[in-house]
Amino acid sequence: MGGPKNIGRDIHNTHDFIIASREGISVAVIKVLQNRIGLTNKMMSSILEISESTLQRLIKQKSRLGKSESEAAYEISKIIAKGIEVFGDEQEFTEWLYAKNTALGDERPIDWLDSSIGREQLEDLLVGIQYGHYS
């Protein structure tokens, strides 16, 4: 997620991230995540449930994210890490994110990032792919 500089502390486990999310992580983490999987500001603002202008203001002011936005960033970073682990390559994972998927009712995985439940389902789907339940 960009390391201690962006988060504001070392993260070794979920407890560490809970503390960091309460304090708010740097909006720089969002830019790292966007660059990793090709998310536009419009897409990211939808995922974070904030307006695009609010996201742009946070980026411009180099602000810290609120608790819910920090938690969403953490969940997305976990999905990215799992996806790279499963596919063995960041590019292949990104291509998977943007392709329609029958396990998701022919929707794109990227479109499931906008809710906590959707992000949880994506993690489950990636584990299923890892163990050969889906392709």
UniProtKB/TrEMBL annotation:
<dbReference type="Pfam" id="PF20432">
    <property type="entry name" value="Xre-like-HTH"/>
</dbReference>
<dbReference type="Pfam" id="PF09722">
    <property type="entry name" value="Xre_MbcA_ParS_C"/>
</dbReference>
<dbReference type="InterPro" id="IPR046847">
    <property type="entry name" value="Xre-like_HTH"/>
</dbReference>
<dbReference type="InterPro" id="IPR011979">
    <property type="entry name" value="Antitox_Xre"/>
</dbReference>
<dbReference type="GO" id="GO:0003677">
    <property type="term" value="F:DNA binding"/>
</dbReference>
<feature type="domain" description="Antitoxin Xre-like helix-turn-helix">
    <location>
        <begin position="20"/>
        <end position="75"/>
    </location>
</feature>
<dbReference type="InterPro" id="IPR024467">
    <property type="entry name" value="Xre/MbcA/ParS-like_toxin-bd"/>
</dbReference>
<protein>
    <submittedName>
        <fullName>DUF2384 domain-containing protein</fullName>
    </submittedName>
</protein>
<feature type="domain" description="Antitoxin Xre/MbcA/ParS-like toxin-binding">
    <location>
        <begin position="84"/>
        <end position="132"/>
    </location>
</feature>
